[in-house]
Amino acid sequence: MASLKLSEAAIRAGATEKSFARGRELFRRGAVSRAAIQGRALSGVCEGSESPFYRVRAELDEGGVRSASCTCPYDFGGYCKHIIALLLSYAHEPEGFAARKEPAELLSELSREQLLALLTKLLAEQPDLYELTEAALAAPSVSGDGKITPSGRREVDVEVYRRRVSGIMHGLDHLRASEAYWHVSGVTDELRGVERSAREFLDAGEAEAALRILLTLVEESSDGFEYIDDSNGELGDFLNDLGVTLAEVILSLVLDEDEREGLLSDLDDLHDQLSDYGVEGLGVAILAARHGWEELPASARAAETRSGYKDEDDDAEADEDDEWYASGWAPADPAQVLTRAKLNVLERQGRMDEYLALCLRAGEHLRYTLKLLSLGRAAEAASHAVKRLTDAGEALTLAQCLRDSKYLDEAIRVGERGLRLKGHKAALGRWLGAIEETQGRTKQALAAWLAAFHEAPSLDLWRTLKRLAGRGWSKLKPKAMSSLEKFYDKRPLAEVLVEEQEWDAAIRLADGRTQEHEVAAIVADALITRRPEWVIRTSVKHVEALIVPTKSSLYPIAADWLRRAKAAYAHSGRADEWQQYLRRLKEQYKRRPALMAQLRSL
Fold first, then answer.
1. How far apart are CA 531 and CA 520, in angstroms?
2. pLDDT digits over 385-413, tens only?
């Protein structure tokens, strides 16, 4: 662990300037306590503003900070100030972290009786731990190699699930329509709980039980659909996705001809019912029931690309059994959806050779590389990814998994390749830039940060590029500025122009964005003491534009502009003019109580 170093640059790379500054202040005043290190994981508690303290955790590797979390509500990008305080504590005072044993080592010398006594005591004292233990014991058992152990054939009382789903679907009947609309997401979440129950049976090798639960779920959901206001499509999306789960279950079954025909009949009936509500997702399950593990015939593939059922007279040569497809559900390639369902089944059943072969045939290269990694073939996974992955997002997914599995060199290799692929690169650039910088690879770090900046520029990234470019900044700056100017959101451009003290350019930007109050506000806040006359004119212009529509929600924004005008008047030595202007506004708008309340605060 002593070889794992952590620099301020690596910490700063994962945080905004504001968060870093606040975290550094927390570190300096000793806000972190109970600091400990267990393997590569740091933990501690940090003083909080909305709570006495927050629990903080971070995991390190040779690339710096692999992951970090905090119990505070911060959700504005990058590390929160509490995480930064913990990381800075380790970077500067690693000797202050108490070394903790790994759980297995801590408990290794206890006898069975001692372990039982300890667990009994903890369960009695910690209700949350009791619930976690109870849930773990209820889950399907897992063998030493990580495979779920089948529990044998089990009869399922579907009436229990039928009552459950019916209760969910009618749970909003007592509410007015306007009220019920806002609770549809809760209904959908409860239905997902039933689906999870079916998946637990499937994972335990009991596909027949899973099928009965899912069919009951679809039947009752279909019957209750008319009582639900699904304007936002949440329930329909859930039922569409349920078709894939059903396909996995069906592919896990061994059906004779009569069973297959009976299942197809049931699915066709349910499909017809749900089609009335625009739900067509059962089509994939029907394909699975009809064709199983066989390659889809050309007629089925053709049907999948059209919308609407075919009339029998439209194509007499087409196989009538393949005409399952109806309007409303139009994925780009339903055959690929079925292929992914097959891959899920093969993976669940541990049929790795077949899984890998199907991945290659279907062009599922990300899944192929992830499976190679899980099999301990990291170098092979990285090599395949470099040759076959085509999307930057997929490269990031694999690179993160490689890093999590302690293959940092391979992760960097895949990440660097991803920067040259199509797709969005902002997330990949931010992730890779911090690692490259920690490794001391300035040139590569600059390339990664630049890729992130071109796609999603920000003041923080601008500062990072400027810091890393050093003497080469004069050549890089025009390219970075071009990205800012092309970016749809002009706030980062305004922040950078202010940072660089390019006042005339900042004013031109603000004057050209009269409706974008936030852009102009960034410039005005910086120019109160430098260009007070412009700030006064701009503030008055925005105040008038905000007051005229007679919308009380705009008045607080108008008041903010008035405060800027007040400060600019004061800096110009014209406080009397400010008072005259304010009195005029109060007289002119004295019949607007909400506005007057804002004016009185000035």
1. 13
2. 999 999 999 999 999 999 999 999 999 99
**Cβ count near 108 (within 10 Å):** 9
Percentage of the residues of the chain whose pLDDT score is greater than 70: 89
Determine, yes or no, domain membership for 587: yes
Say what angle helices 575-588 and 555-571 make with each other, to 10 degrees.
Answer: 160
Interval 363-389: pLDDT, tens: 999 999 999 999 999 999 999 999 999
Residue 559: both structure tokens together = 């008041």
Rounded to the nearest 10°, the torsion over CA 11, 15, 21, 26 is -70
**Residue 300 pLDDT greater than 70, yes or no:** no
Residues 198 and 301 in one domain: yes
Cβ pair 165, 191 in contact under 8 A = yes
Give the closest residue to 252 by CA, choosing from 343, 189, 327, 121.
343
Task: Based on the fold, state whether residues 57 and 185 are members of the same structural domain.
Answer: no
Neighbours of 151 (CB within 10 A): 13
> DSSP assignment of 440-452, as one string?
T-HHHHHHHHHHH
Q: Are residues 98 and 164 in the same domain?
A: no
The reply to whether 171 and 76 lie within a common domain is no
Cβ atoms of residues 316 and 335 within 8 Å? no
User: pLDDT-based confidence at 303, cuts 50/70/90?
Assistant: low
Record the pTM. 0.75
Cβ atoms 558, 542 nearer than 8 A: yes
Tokens 């909080």 belong to residue? 48
| Rounded distance between C-alpha atoms, residue 289 and residue 264, angstroms | 6
Q: Is 120 exposed, middle or buried (0-12, 13-18, 19+ CB in 10 A)?
A: exposed
Sheet with 53-61: list strands edge to edge: 64-70, 53-61, 41-47, 32-38, 98-99
3-state secondary structure of 345: helix
Q: What is the domain range of residue 592?
A: 505-600
Phi, psi (degrees; rounded to nearest 5) at 356: -65, -40
CA 229 from chain centre, in angstroms, equals 27
Band (pLDDT 50/70/90 cuts) for residue 154 is: low
Alpha-carbon span 432 to 419, nearest angstrom: 9
